[in-house]
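Side project, low priority. Logging it here so it doesn't get lost.
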Amino acid sequence: MRTSRLLALGAVPALAVVALAGCGDDKADGQSGSGSGGNGKIAVTATDTECKVEKTETASGPVTFTVSNKGAKVTEFYVYATGDRIVGEVENVAPGLTRDLIVELAAGTYETACKPGMIGNGIRGAFKATGETKPLTDDAKLAQATKDYQTYVKNNTGALIDKTTEFVNAVKSGDTEKAKALFPIARTYWERIEPVAESFGDLDPAIDAREADLEPGQEWTGFHKIEKDLWVTKDISKSGPTADKLLADVKTIVEKAQSVQLSPLELANGAKELLDEVATGKITGEEDIFSHTDLWDFQANLEGSRAAIAALRPVIEEKDPALAKSLDEKFTAAQAELDKYRSGDGWKLHNELSEAQLKSLADAINALAEPISKVAPLVAAK
C-alpha cells in the first residue's frame, strides 16, 4: 500500500485470502489488457471526487477492473475484503491514463475504492461476487506455483526477522556504523516480499513509510525514521523505541505472511508491482533518500519479481512459450545492467550514478515490465 510519487528524472519515467498489489496493463503504453476469466471487464471511472464502478456485482473467479482516471490528480484503485484486507490494488494511475487490475474473488462481499491524490481511505463503494467457480489452483501447475512461492516467502521472512533483529540490536547499542551496514541488508528481505507485506493494512506504512508520504498527524515509525536518525541527525540515542516497534511490526507481518493462502494472480500481480516499485521510487532515489542505498532495494525487487515468475514458469511456458523466452531475456538484461554498479559485496550509492546511468537502468526495468504485464491475463485465462 505504498504511496508512490512519480518524480521526473530526465526521461525516466478472494479466492485469494489476500491478493498482491497488482499494477495492471497501462493502455497508454500500448500494453495488452486482455484476459478476465470470462467475467468481462468492469469499467471504473475515477475523478477527484467520484469513483464510478460500472457494476457492483459479478460472478466469482478472475475479475478485471479497467480503471480510467478522468481527474486531475494521480489516483489508486483498491479492492478490499472484510477488515480492509487488500485483495488487489493498482497504483499511480495518472490523469488521462487507463490501467487494468485482475483479481480472483471468491463469493462474498467486498469494497472498491479510488484514492485521488493517493491518500486517505478513498472513495468507497460496496461490491459483491456471487456463485461458485473453480479456483485457479484447481490447475495442478498453478497450485504448485503458489506452493513454491510460499516457500520462497517463508525463507525470506525468516531472514527478515534475523537481520532486522541484528539491525535493531545495533541501533539500541548505539553502534552507528554497524547499524548503517545492516540497514540495506535487512531491507533486502523486506523488499523481496513487499507485495505480501503491503496487503496487511497499516503494518506496511508503520514499517516502511517515507517522511514525504506521511499524512497530517501520522506518527512516523519504521526503517526510514531510523535511516534519518543514522544519516541525517546522526543521533540514535533516542531511537530505541522506534527500533523495538519496527521489530515487533516485522514479527507481526511475518506471522501473518506464514498463514496467508496465495492465489496465482497474487504472484503475477506482485511480480509487476515490484518492478513498479523500482520505476517509481528506487530509480528516482526517493526510497532511501537519506542513505542512498536504493540499489540494494532495486536488486531485492528484481529478485522478488523473478521468484514469482519462476514459480509460474511452467504455466507460462505451456500457454505462451514466446512470452517465457522474452521474460528470461529481459530478466537477464535487467540484471546485467544492474550488475554494472556492484561495489564489493553490495552496490554503489544512488547519488554516485549519473542521470544517463539511471536512465539505462530505468530502460532495462521498463523493458522487463512490458512482458510481465502479460502474465496476469495469461494466468486468469481459462
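Brief comment: Residues 212 and 286 are 9 Å apart (CA to CA).
Revisit when time allows.
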